[in-house]
Amino acid sequence: MTDPFLLEIKDLHATVEGKEILRGVSLQVRTGEVHAVMGPNGSGKSTLAQVLAGHPAYKVTGGSVRYDGKDLLELEPEARAREGMFLAFQYPVAIRGITNSYFLRSAVNAIRKHKGEPELDPLDFLQVLEDKLKAIGWDDSFMNRAVNEGFSGGEKKRNEILQLAVLEPRLAILDETDSGLDIDALKTVAQAVNMLRSPLRSFVVVTHYQRLLNYIVPDYVHVLAEGRIVKSGGKELALTLEEKGYDWVKPEGAAVS
Amino acid sequence: MTSIEAQVLQPYKYGFVTDIESESVPPGLSEDVIRLISAKKGEPEWMLDWRLKAYRHWLTMTEPTWANVKYGPIDYQAISYYAAPKQRPKVESLDQVDPKLLETFEKLGIPIAEQKRLAGVAVDAVFDSVSVATTFRAELAKFGVIFCPISEAIREHPDLVRQYLGTVVPTNDNYFAALNSAVFTDGSFAFIPKGVRCPLELSTYFRINASSTGQFERTLIIAEEGSHVSYLEGCSAPTRDENQLHAAVVELVALDNAQIKYSTIQNWYPGDEEGKGGIYNFVTKRGACRGRNSKISWTQVETGSAITWKYPGCLLQGDGSIGEFYSVAVTNHRQQADTGTKMIHIGKNTKSTIVSKGISAGHGQNTYRGLVKIMKGAEGARNYSQCDSMLIGDQCGAHTFPYIDVRNSSAIMEHEASTSKIGEDQIFYCKQRGLSAEDAVSMIVNGFCKEVFKELPMEFAVEAQNLLGISLEGSVG
C-alpha cells in the first residue's frame, strides 16, 4: 500500500545547541502540491528546512517524518538527496577551484548511480545542462565559474534553482529563496521555479514575506510560530497575513493543521 | 572528535616490507664508515676527500632548532648509513635484477620491467642506498642526455660531477646538507646538453626498505644552454615504529635559457595516528638559475613523513631568470611540516612566483616558511606570493612565516594569504546534492589545490589527486 502523502511530518520536535526550536510541527504534502510555510523571524522555518534535509547541527527529539513511504529520519543527508529531496539553501556555500558544471555533474552522477543508471560523461552532461538552461531561459554564463565563489546574492539563488532544475527532485524545499533579491531577480527566480512545477514534483516554499507568493502561487499556506504550525489555509491566507501581520495569528497558540 | 574528523584512519597503503636479503654497515658514523661507503661505490680519491671534508665540518655544527616542529633527539650513532639488497655486483640487464625488487616497484605502481614501462617516462629506481635500475638510458643517450645513478656518474662522468657538485648547496650549507655530503649513497644524475629538449620525463623513485637505516640521496641535474627537462621524484617507506631519517640534497643548475621543472610527490611513511614512527624528511633542495632567462620551477605534493623540513629554493642569478614554487603540503594525525621556499633575486629583472597550499587535519601542524630576498643589484625584480591554509577539524594548526628582505627599491612584491576551514556546512551542502562525505572532501581539497596540481606533469596529476584523497580519507565525516 502506498502512502497518500509524499511527505508526512507528525509532531516533529527538534533542537539546536540544546534549544528547542520545533515544538510539534505536523504537515502533509501530496505529490504535485506547492506548500508555503510562512512565519516571523525565529519561528523555526529554516530549522524545519534544515531538519528535513538532515543538517547534523539539528537534533530531532520527537515525532516522525515519512517521505515516499520511508522513515526519512533514518536516512543520511546524501541518501535523502539521492531519493529525490532537494534543499535550495538560504546561504549557499562556495567551493573554490571546482567549477559549477563539474560540481553539478558529480551530483547528477551520484544520483544516477543510486538509481542504477549509467553515469554521464562530460559531453553528455553538457547536453543535459544546455537543455535545462534553455528550458528555464537562462544562459550558461556561470557554469565555468567556481561554485558560488564570488557570486552575487542573486547569482547564488539562481544557481540553487539551476541545480534544482538539473537534479530533478521529487520534493524541493526552498529556504527563503527570496531573501536578498531585488524585484527583478525575484521575478527571474520565480519564473524558473514555476517552469519547474509539475504534477510529479512537490514544493515546500519557506518564506518570511508574502511577495514571493505573488509569483509562486502556492496551493496551501501554513503559518509557523514558536515552533508550531498555528494556522493553515489556501493561498489567500498569505494575503491576510500581509495585511494583518504575524501578530494576528500568534494568540491562537495551538496547532491547526 | 567532531564528526568531520570521525572517519580518519585509512591505513598507509605503501607500508609493506620487501623480504630481501640485504647487507648493511653496522650503525654508527665515523671516518671509517665514510671510507667504507666510498669504497663500496668504487669512488675516486677526490670524492672521498670531499666527503671527509664535509664530515669534519658537520662535526662542528649543531642541529637547527628554529623550525616549528617538535621531536626527540636523533641519535646519529644509532643509524646505519648504508644498506643494499644483496645481488650480483654488476647487473648488466633488468633480467638480472632480483625479481623481488622488480615486484616491489611494481607494487608501488612504478613498473621498471621492460614490457611494462611507463610510456614517456624514464625511471631510476633507488632501493635503500642503491639504484637498482634505470630505464630508457640508451634511448636518452641518443639525444646526449645522461640519466644514471649518481654513484655511476661519479665514476663515469667525473669532470661533470666535479664541476657542479656542491656548487648550489655547499657542503657546509646546513647541518643536514653537511651530513648528506659526508654519507650520501645514491640518487640520480641528469645532464641535458645544449639545445636539447629532453624527449622523456625523467623520474626517480626512492624506496626505503631496511630498518634502522637512513636514506641520504643526492640528486644533481644540469641543464645546459637552451635545454629543457622535466623531472619527477616519488618516494615511500614501510610502516615501522621507529623514526627513520631521510636527509637528501638536490641541486639544479640551469644555464642560459634553460628550463628545469622539478616535481615531487612525497609519500614517506607518516607515522601512525598517535605519531609513532614515520620518516623525518630533512631535505635541502636548491636550484641555481645561472644563465640569462633561465627558469626553475619546483612543484611539490607533500603528503607523507612524520616531520618535513624542506625549502626548495631558487638562486636567480641570471638576468631575466624565473623561479617558481608550487606546493601542497598535507599534515594529518600527528604529522608536522615546516616547508616553504627561498627565492633569492640577484640578477636584473628576475621574477619569482610562490603558491603554497597547506592542509591540516587531525592533530597535524602545518607551517609555511618562506624567504623572498631582493639583492641590491636586482633591478626590476618581481615576486608574487600566495599562501593558503585549509583546516579540517579543530585540533590542527596552520602557521605562516613569510620573510621578505628587499634591498632594491625598484622591486614589486605582492603577497596574498588566506585561511579557510572545511566546515560542516560545506560538507552538508555537498551531501545535500547527493555526494558522499569522502567525495565532498576530495572535491573541496582538490579545488583548493587546483593551482598547484595544474603545474604537475599530466601523468602525475591524477596520481597526486588520488594520493591526496587517500591521505585525507576519513578526515571528514
Question: Would you write up a description of this structure?
Answer:
The complex is a heterodimer of chains A (257) and B (477). Chain A is α/β, with parallel strands linked by helices. Chain A is built from eight helices and twelve strands. Chain A is 34% helix and 28% strand. Chain B has ten helices and 23 strands. In chain B, helix 1 (31-40) packs antiparallel against helix 2 (45-59) and helix 5 (150-156) crosses helix 6 (158-164). Classes of the chains: A alpha/beta (257), B alpha/beta (477).
Task: Offer a concise description of the structure.
The complex is a heterodimer of chains A (257) and B (477). By secondary structure, chain A is α/β, with parallel strands linked by helices.
How helical, in percent, are the residues of chain B? 10-25%
Order of helices and strands of chain A: EEEHEEHEEHHEHEHEHEEH
Q: How large is the count of helical segments of chain A?
A: 8
Q: Can you summarize the main beta sheet of chain A?
A: 6 strands, mixed
Topology overview:
The complex is a heterodimer of chains A (257) and B (477).
Chain A: E1 7-16, E2 19-29, E3 34-38, H1 45-53, E4 58-67, E5 70-71, H2 77-82, E6 85-88, E7 95-99, H3 100-114, H4 122-136, E8 146-147, H5 153-167, E9 171-175, H6 183-196, E10 202-207, H7 211-215, E11 220-225, E12 228-233, H8 236-244
Parallel strand pairs in A: 3-10, 3-11, 6-9, 9-10
Antiparallel strand pairs in A: 1-2, 1-4, 4-5, 7-8, 11-12
Helix pairs in contact in A: 5-6
Chain B: E1 22-24, H1 31-40, H2 45-59, E2 83-85, H3 99-107, E3 121-127, E4 130-134, H4 137-141, E5 146-149, H5 150-156, H6 158-164, H7 175-183, E6 188-192, E7 201-207, E8 218-223, E9 228-236, E10 243-246, E11 249-254, E12 259-266, E13 278-289, E14 295-302, E15 307-310, E16 313-316, E17 322-331, E18 336-345, E19 351-360, E20 365-374, E21 382-392, E22 397-406, E23 412-422, H8 424-432, H9 437-453, H10 458-472
Parallel strand pairs in B: 3-7, 6-8, 7-9, 8-11, 9-12, 10-13, 11-13, 12-14, 13-15, 13-16, 14-17, 15-18, 16-18, 17-19, 18-20, 19-21, 20-22, 21-23
Antiparallel strand pairs in B: 1-2, 3-4, 5-6
Helix pairs in contact in B: 1-2, 2-7, 5-6, 8-9, 9-10
